[in-house]
């Protein structure tokens, strides 16, 4: 079995270092040979992406990432390309120093970077300044260089990771290179797929450098990239009772739209029945716009009880509010012991009255809600989204969807998936309400909380990408409903 099977697996920086040590110690592949393989893979990637490129500038730092850059420069120069190297320092050591000597012996042009220098012109810039070991902001000299690279308008190929991006977390403590393409070596680093990485990495390619599958034995991935999934076809004799009954609870004064979108998303995702418990003033609008929803005007917990008894899964929070009405319904819903999905004010109320769930539950916070649930601030959550998602899942005993660029789905047992779909147009009102309905619908149809969250996040994000083909700006949550239905049935939109 080839190492390519691991390309959906995500690893921490320390895990990749351990794989590197195994390749050297157990397989007898020298560090310099691995560096040469990385340079060869990077040049091949560059030539595929920019086949007309004839002039390169390679920016090299003092570490092994810089060594990859020096060897790439040597290979490109030997292939007849015009190549210049801009280096931060000549203080390379070990294999990186050997790589620098290889470049210098080839009589290539080398410039020492200083802050008042101009950058050489090129068809492509190669970022080999810092690799996966950097977990701080680049120093002032390197930051100025990175800013100049970003301002140049010249496309950038990043080796292993864009310089300045934390390859473990996806956080940038300072300035970072904005690459059009990133080629990652040996294994995919988890931080390239979430948070601020979305604005830095461009298109990601992972090259295992021809290493055999045995290298990965006994090294479980830290996380995985989400697969495109949907439910199988229904039995030909199916009836609505086979597909579950979602009860959506919310829609305080002025927020009928939120609970309607939640309920409609549950229907479009295949729930057999969807009831809505909401303010009485919302009934006319809901019945007029979407008569398939069974809407009930609820004044308090006593009127909610019969609806809870009939429900398979609860979707709690869209437009719920945090006043007396919303709190009473929230408390009654949680005390019912029904499987549920919590979003919006359902999460804000949970932050005020924390509890650990003993029945299947999915929490879908954005970073601000996650911060309140963890009693932290937003930057603390975003600095390490992986740790934040896992902490939430363990603290509350629930599957957690930490929304944002590169949404994370975390299980209390430590499993974690990363969603690579979605787009900035989805940063608009109502998108979270839809996701709540989708996940609740999948749970009602028999999925576990973990599978419902994974499938639901993927369907929701992919539907958003299809809807955004007409443009991201101005994208509405309701634009996702048509592609959501198609994708849920395994039909790819044209």
TrEMBL record:
- Binding-site residues for AMP, renumbered to this chain: 403-407, 432
The record's cofactor note says: Binds 1 potassium ion per subunit.
Metal-binding: is it a keyword of this entry?
yes
Recorded hits in PROSITE patterns, A to Z, give: YJEF_C_3, YJEF_N
YjeF N-terminal domain sequence ranges: 16-217
Q: Which HAMAP family match?
A: NADHX_dehydratase (MF_01965), NADHX_epimerase (MF_01966)
> What is the role of this chain?
Catalyzes the dehydration of the S-form of NAD(P)HX at the expense of ADP, which is converted to AMP. Together with NAD(P)HX epimerase, which catalyzes the epimerization of the S- and R-forms, the enzyme allows the repair of both epimers of NAD(P)HX, a damaged form of NAD(P)H that is a result of enzymatic or heat-dependent hydration. Catalyzes the epimerization of the S- and R-forms of NAD(P)HX, a damaged form of NAD(P)H that is a result of enzymatic or heat-dependent hydration. This is a prerequisite for the S-specific NAD(P)H-hydrate dehydratase to allow the repair of both epimers of NAD(P)HX.
Protein known as = Bifunctional NAD(P)H-hydrate repair enzyme
Source organism per UniProt: Dyella humi
């Amino acid at each position: 079995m080839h190492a390519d099977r691991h390309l959906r697996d995500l690893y921490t920086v320390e895990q990749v270092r351990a794989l590197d040590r195994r390749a050297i110690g157990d397989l007898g592949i020298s560090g310099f040979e691995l560096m040469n393989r990385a340079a060869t893979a990077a040049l091949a990637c560059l030539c595929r992406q920019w086949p007309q490129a004839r002039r390169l500038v390679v920016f090299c730092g003092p570490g092994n990432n810089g060594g990859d850059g020096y060897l790439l420069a040597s290979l490109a120069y030997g292939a007849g390309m015009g190549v210049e190297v801009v280096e931060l320092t000549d203080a390379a050591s070990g294999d990186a120093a050997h790589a620098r000597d290889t470049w210098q012996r080839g009589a290539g042009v080398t410039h020492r970077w200083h802050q008042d220098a101009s950058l050489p012109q090129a068809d492509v810039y190669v970022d080999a300044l810092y690799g996966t070991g950097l977990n701080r902001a680049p120093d002032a000299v390197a930051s100025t260089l990175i800013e100049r690279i970003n301002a140049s308008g010249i496309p950038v190929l990043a080796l292993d990771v864009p310089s300045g991006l934390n390859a473990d977390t996806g956080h940038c403590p300072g300035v970072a290179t904005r690459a059009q393409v990133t080629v990652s070596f040996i294994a995919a680093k988890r931080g390239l797929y979430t948070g601020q990485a979305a604005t830095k990495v461009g298109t990601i390619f992972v090259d295992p450098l021809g290493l055999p599958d045995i290298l990965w034995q006994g090294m479980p991935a830290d996380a995985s990239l989400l697969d495109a999934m949907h439910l199988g076809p229904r039995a030909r004799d199916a009836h609505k009772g086979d597909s579950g009954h979602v009860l959506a609870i919310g829609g305080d004064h002025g927020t009928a739209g939120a609970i309607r979108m939640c309920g409609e998303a549950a229907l479009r995702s295949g729930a057999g029945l969807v009831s809505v418990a909401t303010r009485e003033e919302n009934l006319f609008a809901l019945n007029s716009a979407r008569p398939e929803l069974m809407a009930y005007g609820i004044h308090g917990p006593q009127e909610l009880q019969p609806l809870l008894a009939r429900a398979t899964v609860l979707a709690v929070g869209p437009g719920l509010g945090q006043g007396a009405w919303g709190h009473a319904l929230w408390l009654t819903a949680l005390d019912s012991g029904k499987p549920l999905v919590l979003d919006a004010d359902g999460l804000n109320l949970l932050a005020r009255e924390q509890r650990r769930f003993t029945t299947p539950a999915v929490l879908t916070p954005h970073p601000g809600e996650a911060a309140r649930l963890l009693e932290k601030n937003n930057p603390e959550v975003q600095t390490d989204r992986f740790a934040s998602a896992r902490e939430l899942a363990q603290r509350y005993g629930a599957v957690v969807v930490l929304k944002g660029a590169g949404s994370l789905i975390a299980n209390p047992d430590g499993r974690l998936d990363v969603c690579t779909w979605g787009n900035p147009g989805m940063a608009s009102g109502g998108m979270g309400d839809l996701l709540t309905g989708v996940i609740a619908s999948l749970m009602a149809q028999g999925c576990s909380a973990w599978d419902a969250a994974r499938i639901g996040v993927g369907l929701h994000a992919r539907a958003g990408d299809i809807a955004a083909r007409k443009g991201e700006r101005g994208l509405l949550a309701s634009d996702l409903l048509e592609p959501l239905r198609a994708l849920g049935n395994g039909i790819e939109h044209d």
